[in-house]
Amino acid sequence: MNRDEKWQAIAGQRRVLADLLAGLNENQWQQPSLCAQWRVKDVAAHVALTPQSPGIVRIVIDALRARGALQAVNRDMAIAHADRTSAELIAELRTLADSRRKPAITTLDNLLFDVLVHVQDIAIPLGLPTAMPREAAHEGVERVWRMGWPFWARRRLTGLRLTATDVAWTAGRGAEVSGPVQAVLLLLTGRTAAALPQLTGPGTKQLVATAASG
Q1: Positions of CATH 3.30.1050 in the chain
Q2: Strand stretches in the chain, DSSP E
Q3: Residues above pLDDT 70, as percent of the chain
Q4: What is the pLDDT of residues 153-179, one digit of tens each?
Q5: pTM to 2 decimals?
Q6: More confident residue, 63 or 201
């Protein structure tokens, strides 16, 4: 995918999320998402906040206060932004869907897989199946497999050979784990329990044990 195609995929996912959220009742907004310690509303606020993220100076100051715990900073910013009404968050997602502004500390490739996964973080626990765009998910698994922090996918999934069944992608060595690229991306980003129902192969025994212990 070229840069324009990636931005178009991000815009599309923001609109998908806005439509999904528009059908929720208030109880569903308060439900836990797949992200530990994040409600559905917090994840929605994070995605809405992304194109209007504060500048690098504010981020650095907050990170220093959190002693370098960037994930904690990210969560705190999302929770603060979630103080808005549900209608306001939906409106932000729609109004800013085509924005190409991004936080200073991230990249376009990171932003792409981030929005793909966060839509699933909301959709899956609410039992609202939502398909990822396949080509964008392919870009996502390529990126997450290459990176280290915060997912450490190559280290965490040592001893497994991962294969996407609907795109041309495979990585790792060992016991086979295969499934749709959407499920593989969830696995790489640590959503093991959510990914498992769509995965097959001898290596899933290792994943089941990991999910049970985690």
Answers
A1: 136-213
A2: 160-164, 169-172, 175-179
A3: 91
A4: 999 999 999 999 999 999 999 999 999
A5: 0.91
A6: 201
Sign of CA dihedral 192, 131, 185, 162: positive
Burial (CB count <10 Å: 0-12, 13-18, 19+), residue 107: exposed
Among residues 45, 53, 25, the alpha carbon closest in space to that of 128 is found at 25
The residue count of the chain comes to 214
Residue 46 vs residues 1, 10, 35, 185: alpha-carbon distances, Å: 25, 14, 12, 19
End-to-end CA gap in the chain: 34
The DSSP symbol for 133 reads: P
Give the residue-averaged pLDDT of 67-95: 87
CB 94 within 8 A of CB 15: yes
Tokens of 26: 């208030």
Write the CATH number of the domain with boundaries 136-213. 3.30.1050
Strands 160-164 and 169-172: antiparallel
